[in-house]
Design a protein that fits this description.
With 120 residues, this protein is mainly α. 72% of the residues lie in helices and 0% in strands. Helix 4 runs antiparallel to helix 5. It is globular, with a radius of gyration of 14 Å. 35% of the residues are buried.
Length: 120
């Protein structure tokens, strides 16, 4: 997806693309489809960058309640940048769960605490 398309999108569209791409990312990882996972990750990053440029990242916070764990993990990790009081508790809970999301939450928290977490 081109930068221009992200720039022309509404905030609602960006949030929708972020959510859909996060879910697709998790599904691609489960299927060991790295090409699809990379495409989804690019869309997540593009949507997040555009939301940040519009000072609209808080629009992602309602997704912390979504049923999809990969989506919650992504939002919580990004929230460490703009609303750690919301992202950290979600990551602490997910970190205790088995599987790749638990591992991703663990390392996001570790990098954040060490000051090495970089956002797209």
């Amino acid at each position: 997806m081109s930068t221009r398309r992200f720039q022309k999108a509404s905030i609602e569209e960006l949030v929708q693309w972020y959510a859909e791409s996060s879910i697709a990312y998790g599904q691609a990882l489960e299927a060991a489809d790295s090409r699809s996972a990379n495409r989804a990750a690019d869309k997540i990053s593009g949507a997040y960058r555009e939301l940040r440029s519009r000072d609209a990242t808080s629009q992602l916070l309602p997704l912390l309640q979504h049923e999809n764990e990969t989506l919650r993990t992504n939002v919580a990790a990004h929230a460490l940048e703009f609303a750690p009081e919301f992202g950290e508790p979600v990551l602490l809970w997910i970190e205790k769960r088995p599987g790749r999301n638990g591992l991703a939450a663990h390392y996001a928290l570790k990098a954040w605490r060490e000051g090495t977490l970089k956002f797209p």
